Amino acid sequence: MQLAFYAPLKAADHPVPSGDRAMARALIAALEFGGAQVTLASDLRSRDGAGDAAVQQRLFDTAKAEVARLIPQGRRENWAAWITYHNYYKAPDLIGPAVAKALNIPYLLIESTRARKRLTGPWARFAQAAEDASNAADVIFYLTQRDAQTLERDKTQGQTLIHLRPFLARQSLPAMSLQDGPMLSVGMLRSGDKLASYRIIAETLHHLPTGTWALDIAGDGSARPDVEALMAPFGNAVRFLGQLDAADLETVYGRASLLFWPGVNEAFGLAYLEAQATGLPIVAQERPGVCDVLAPGNYPHPEDGITPMSLRLQALLAVPSLRTALGERARSHVASHHLLPTAAATLRGGLAKAGVTL
Prior knowledge:
Layout: E1 2-6, H1 19-33, E2 37-40, H2 53-77, E3 81-87, H3 96-103, E4 107-112, H4 124-136, E5 139-142, H5 145-154, E6 160-163, E7 183-186, H6 193-205, E8 215-218, H7 224-231, E9 238-242, H8 246-255, E10 258-260, H9 270-277, E11 282-283, H10 307-318, H11 320-337, H12 340-353
């Protein structure tokens, strides 16, 4: 069974690593695990981050040419369905609905968000295109409960919504963490929400007793000087590991004591799943999206401030048995809900709802 797959924000074979690219690759792995053959239909990146009408028009024109190219390819390869990952107002799917309609095949979306408030303003045309794609979908898989709310509110007649939990592209858990190393933070070093999380981390560290902790930071990016400045007061207690590949990152998880990442405006955060899979307890704030991947537990609300996180860190660092208990609970949660076989079964069920049997 041949399926066309497209990721308008960032293609699965894009050279720059990111959570979005990792999720696209995981989705392809899950579809193939379920018995499909997957074609990367296009590498057109439709993102307009600035609300630039000229950029949007250029992307509409490029997409039109892509549609003309892909329709004959889809006929030759006998595509059974088109699947698009991550359709939203800054990077809408400008290709899939037209190709699927021309080929008379089901059109499915994974992680599509609706933003009616963007139908006016600089992204109005792109927001409408994202809405049109959502309206055209036979099945929409949502990853978080936050996305489900607007998808349910605005779904079209006969459209099916299915909860696909964020997942790791692996069939089994990695080795259990030793939980006796430094704390760990994993996140790109860039401005905006990531830098906001690092500011919260730095503020929290000021509340920890000196000499009782160490922190490794895995990640890199243009805001590294800003993060280094935030961490400068802590001297050698904070170490920057840079950008790590998957194998090196798994090694780092394996020697850490816990993962500390507040999660400001994270869609969900693959690092939470990766860390929990190794048995690391998590110190994070209870935020939409983040809660969809964390094992059940008590996580402080952002409005509670820094104190609850600092107290949680001190308790976990002081009591190894508590780290172990929470880590085992986290591993069990990931094993039950967030691995490849579960995701493959969910995707297979959604395709069946659209009339495609793998």
